[in-house]
Amino acid sequence: MGSMINVRLPAGQLEGTAATLLNWLVRPGDKVQKDQPLVELETDKVTMEVASPADGFVDQLLLDAGAEVTMESILAILSDQHADDFAAQAPTTAQPAAADTLAASAVEPSTRHPLLSPAVRRLAKQHQLDLHQLSGSGKGGRITKSDVLNYLSSAQAQPSAAASAPQQAMPALTQPVQQAAPQSTATHAALEQPATTSNASSLRPHTPMRKRIAEHMVDSLLHTAPHVTSIFELDMTAIQRHRTANKDEFARQDVKLSFTPYFVAAAVKALQQVPEVNSQFHSHGLELFHDCNIGVGTALGNDGLVVPVIRQAQDLNLLGIARRLQQLTQAAYEGSLKPADMKGGTFTISNHGVSGSLVATPIIINQPQTAILGIGKMQKRVVVKEVDGIDTMVIRPMCYVTLTIDHRALDGYQTNTFLSVLVDILENWR
């Protein structure tokens, strides 16, 4: 019998979070290569693949789909020799044999081609797609979640066979009245009966991400921090002009310049002037952070919400912020964020205006932070501006910005000072 290898998670991969086994990508008896994906796991924040730590053959799969996975869990056993009597069977629950233990590696997006993210695999399986029919728009021809969704949308737009088939001829309307009368009477009697109320429904189980979001929201709002929100109005004219003048130059460097990087940059400057906002409340004092690690809320539709973090944003210019934000957002949509990408945030921005919201309050604070910035939808509004000493009605691109604070740590003074600085920076952007 050859040597055996216990497959575990890479050290520090979960970073204190829980994980659920989604599905196996191999079966007992399969030959695998080092860094080949073995299994998909879902944590409360990301879906990730765990790769083989060595070349060999799959001897046993020790956990079933739906099982909880910890850093101590042994996921599978590999052998350096092939066994002829492997049966095609479901994952066993046998105990791990005495074996060398190697930590599996998390699959890095750039190490395999073509790489299919867990999100892409799930969509393909759900809709029974042949991914060879799709062309990828990602780096190196990689198929992204957006590619699959666009393909599904175009497929749904095609006329179905049922729709294109000729309709059956309608029955002739020449039946004698005497024959139609009894049917009419029966129909009339049926209409006099009370309608039956249908409460048909289906239960969609919560994902680990949704469970964690629910726990986090309740804990933050009801059990931890008294929330207070302040609202300011912002004239986006200067930002709009700057973006129009510079977005093509950013595009030449493969960076899309949206409005969010401006808010990240302005928030950093405001945090530096009001450092109490970049903090964490403790019973014995207020911990002030030197680095501005800015989390940006990223909605994933029905899949939930993630908050990837732009670390040390104070060291980045607008281009650097936009590039890093683009990388993190793309990884979030493709399901390839790592747990470390969402750790260590000191302040969070929620750009809820992208979905049409003008004001959202309170936006739940991302614990253990002390504040969260909300950005509403930009829209043209009539406002009064002083022009040559005369009050004049003008049309400007306006939006509302909010700061929701933990009132244990901050008061109205710090809240309104922060927003005043933020608005001044953005309205006078150069």
Automatic annotation (TrEMBL):
Recorded superkingdom: Bacteria
Domain Lipoyl-binding: residue ranges: 4-79
Comp. bias regions, Low complexity: 160-172
PROSITE patterns, A to Z: BIOTINYL_LIPOYL, LIPOYL, PSBD
Entry keyword set: Acyltransferase, Lipoyl, Transferase
Region listing for Disordered, in residue ranges: 160-205
One GO MF term attached to the UniProt entry: lipoic acid binding
UniProt enzyme class: transferase
Start and end residues of each Peripheral subunit-binding (PSBD) domain: 115-152
GO CC annotations on file: cytoplasm
Residue ranges, compositional bias (Polar residues): 175-187, 194-204
Cofactor(s) essential for the protein: (R)-lipoate
EC number: 2.3.1.-
Similarity section: Belongs to the 2-oxoacid dehydrogenase family.
Matches recorded under PANTHER family: DIHYDROLIPOAMIDE ACETYLTRANSFERASE COMPONENT OF PYRUVATE DEHYDROGENASE COMPLEX, LIPOAMIDE ACYLTRANSFERASE COMPONENT OF BRANCHED-CHAIN ALPHA-KETO ACID DEHYDROGENASE COMPLEX, MITOCHONDRIAL
Quaternary data: Forms a 24-polypeptide structural core with octahedral symmetry.
Protein name, per record: Dihydrolipoamide acetyltransferase component of pyruvate dehydrogenase complex
Organism: Proteobacteria bacterium 228
